[in-house]
Structures are given as C-alpha cells and as structure tokens.
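In the design runs reported in the main text, the only information available to the sequence generator was the tokenized backbone. The following block is the verbatim input for one such run; it is reproduced so that readers can re-run the procedure and compare outputs position by position.
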C-alpha cells in the first residue's frame, strides 16, 4: 500500500489535543493500514507550553496564526474552544484554503452559515462537535444521505444525563449530584453551559442545519435546562411509567420544523430511557431507513479525539486520491417535495402533553379547583396522582398528565393555576416526549 503523509498542525494543548496526540502515538500503524494515510504532527500552537506533553517532535509555538502560515501544515486541528481566537483561526485557514477539523460547537452554531459557505463545505469538518465519539455527522451526511428525516431525538449532554441518573438511583438532591459531577470532572466549575441547556442547543443547531433546514440558526431553538427538576419529579414520573431525560428534539410536521431542547418524560420502554451515565444517544427516524439509534461516549479526551481523527483520516484519504479537496455546489436537499424551504415553528405553536406537579394546600376541594382552572383552557387530564397527606404535612402535590396542548395555551393555563390561592409553591411543568 502506498502511504500518503498528512502533516498536522494542532491548535491547543488541552484534554482533546492530548487525546489526539496519544491516539496517534498508540494507533498510528493501525490508522495507516486502514486508510493508507500516515499522520505526522509537525506543529503545535498553544498559549503556553506543557512540558509533560509529548509533542512527538512537533515544533511548538505560542502564535496560533503560525498554523496557517506554515507551508508544512496540511490540515489544522482547531482544539482551543471559545468563539474568538478559534473563529479567527478557522476563518484564516479557510481563506488560505487549508482544511480544518474542529470540535467547536459554539463557533459552528453561531457562525456555521458563514464558515460552511463556498469552500468551507469541503474544507471544514466537525464530527467531534456533536456527541463525542458517536459518528452522528457521518451518519447523517453519509449513511442516511438517501433519506428524508422525519424526526431526531437526542441525549446530547452527558452532564445532564449523569445528574438525572444519580438523582434517580440514589435519591440525591440536584445540588449534591451537581457538586459530585464537578468533583468527578463531568461538570465544569461554572456549570450553566451544561445544566441550562446551552451546550445541547449548540449541538442541536448543527444537527438541525445538516439534516433538516440547511441553515445554522441557534435563535430558532427553544432552550430550557434542568435546574427545576427534583427527586420528587423523577419518582412521580416513574410512577406514571416514564423517565426524565434532557432531550434535543427536531420534528418535521405539517406546520414546519420544530427544534427544542428541554427536559422530557420518556416512556420506560423507549430506547433513550435506557441510555445512562455520561453516555449520549441520537435516535433518527427517516423514510427509508426507519428508526436508527447512534449511541456512545459523548465527551472526554479520548472519545472526542477519536472523532477528530476520523475527520482527519477522511480528509487525508480525499487528498491522497490526487484530486485535492473540491467545492460542492450549494445544496437544495433540505427543500420539501414542493420545493419550499423549511419553515421553523414557533415554540408557542408546538403541541405536547405535559407533566404538572402542583404543590397545593391540604384541604378539601383542591383537585376540583385545579381541574376547573385547566378546563377553562380546554385542557383535559390523562392521568393523575394525589397521595394522601401525612398528619404533619401542610402541602401535598397534585401530579397530572395533560393531553396534547399548544405551548402558548399551556403557558396561559399555568399562569392561571399559579394564581390560585390553593397553590402553595411554584408549579413544575415538564413536557412529555413525542412518540419515540
């Protein structure tokens, strides 16, 4: 086999970059055998050196721009994160016609339309930006390329999934589990990016563009986090036959495309209900392939490095073919059968069933008052739980599952319920996942 050498320049020396260096050191022969591509790291650029990291003979620089100007660098790996220096590097590399592999979901969600226009469609790869080691980008753009996608449901943030799993298994309160996740390195010291749904929304924006709309538009994604969920909610959900998961959801409907990130009740027998710990999973329903599930480690240095190098090897094989890297024409593949561009549905118009936990004063007639308030908005109840209060309990939870209700209507009904004098604390509302 004739080997083609691809010379790499790496931006950053964090966990993912170190994972890339280690995988190349450990598996370089295996990668050569499988791809016909030999990888050599020739330059590493980082704000500061890390003497304990083996750079495998690569030249070190503190100037990120050196990766673009160095003629010996064939492919740049952007692994520094953030949306300032990283964006400047990617722009510079694409302008210089150098391929870039990135794990930067925030840059893609905010600037994907610019970066993926023209030459960027072939020069920029980002498998590692969504769901770690899971080949979801390749799956959507390759394996499912012949299909129109009907829906996508994803557990795409391992931190949230870990927190819910621990709350369920041990009955530990949210704040305590979060602190443990931070100690174990599953959550950042400042965790809002994960637990407020922003990380998942960035990833869903990428999946939305690739499989449904062709446009990167973070503003079109409804975002809600997990702070409001308690152990009581997890137990009530189980009693009703559900688990609570933090999901990214995309659906093609008659009204248009829905895109949302929020907690959802998932039936206990659903595939996604059994994805635990820091694992990620994406379930896609399409017209040809039907239901497909992609699952695996969603984060971590080794898992993300695996996805980075899959992109590098794919680019290397393309370059070794002797044809260089061409530019694809603009695609109309996301238009519907009538030739129209997809319409994004406002969250107010999205209909879903709802879980409501309503803390009420323990007195006769409270259930009737709650149902009367809901009936004013034509909301019916599909299931209910009202446990008998103990002798020392002044507040009792009424738990309801509603029928499908438009978001705007449900919000108005919640405002009405919250105003009742029998409601003793904030109502918790969670949506029920659409049929998986």
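Verbatim output:
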């Amino acid at each position: 086999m004739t080997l083609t050498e691809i010379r790499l320049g790496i931006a950053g020396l964090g966990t993912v970059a170190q994972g890339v260096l280690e995988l190349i050191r450990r598996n370089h022969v295996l990668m050569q055998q499988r791809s016909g591509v030999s990888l050599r790291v020739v330059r590493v650029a980082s704000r500061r050196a890390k003497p304990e990291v083996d750079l495998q003979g690569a030249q070190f620089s503190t100037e990120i721009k050196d990766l673009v100007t160095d003629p010996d660098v064939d492919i740049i790996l952007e692994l520094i994160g953030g949306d300032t220096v990283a964006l400047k590097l990617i722009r510079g590399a694409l302008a210089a016609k150098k391929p870039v592999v990135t794990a930067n979901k925030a840059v893609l969600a905010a600037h994907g339309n610019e970066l993926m226009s023209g030459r960027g469609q072939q020069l920029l790869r980002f498998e590692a930006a969504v769901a770690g080691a899971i080949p979801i980008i390749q799956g959507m753009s390759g394996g499912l390329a012949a299909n129109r996608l009907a829906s996508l449901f994803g557990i795409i943030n391992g931190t949230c999934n870990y927190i819910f799993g621990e709350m369920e298994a041990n009955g530990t309160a949210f704040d305590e589990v979060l602190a443990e996740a931070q100690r174990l390195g599953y959550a950042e010291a400042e965790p809002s990016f994960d637990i407020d749904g922003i990380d998942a929304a960035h990833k869903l924006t990428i999946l939305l563009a690739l499989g449904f709309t062709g446009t990167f538009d973070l503003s079109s994604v409804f975002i809600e986090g997990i702070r409001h969920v308690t152990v009581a909610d997890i137990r009530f959900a189980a009693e009703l036959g559900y688990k609570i998961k933090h999901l990214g959801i995309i659906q093609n409907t008659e009204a248009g495309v829905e895109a949302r990130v929020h907690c959802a009740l998932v039936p206990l027998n659903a595939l996604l209900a059994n994805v635990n710990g820091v694992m990620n999973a994406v379930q896609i329903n399409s017209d040809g392939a039907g239901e497909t599930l992609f699952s695996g480690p969603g984060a971590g240095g080794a898992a993300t490095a695996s996805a980075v190098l899959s992109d590098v090897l794919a680019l290397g094989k393309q370059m070794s073919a002797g044809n260089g890297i061409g530019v694809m024409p603009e695609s109309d593949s996301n238009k519907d059968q009538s030739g129209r561009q997809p319409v994004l549905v406002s969250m107010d118009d999205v209909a879903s069933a709802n879980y409501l936990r309503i803390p009420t004063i323990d007195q006769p007639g409270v259930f009737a008052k709650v149902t009367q308030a809901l009936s004013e908005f034509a909301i019916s109840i599909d299931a209910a739980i009202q446990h008998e209060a103990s002798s020392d309990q002044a507040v009792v939870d009424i738990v309801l599952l509603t029928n499908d209700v438009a978001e705007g209507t449900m919000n108005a009904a919640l405002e009405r319920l919250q105003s009742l004098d029998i409601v003793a604390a904030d109502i918790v509302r969670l949506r029920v996942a659409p049929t998986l």
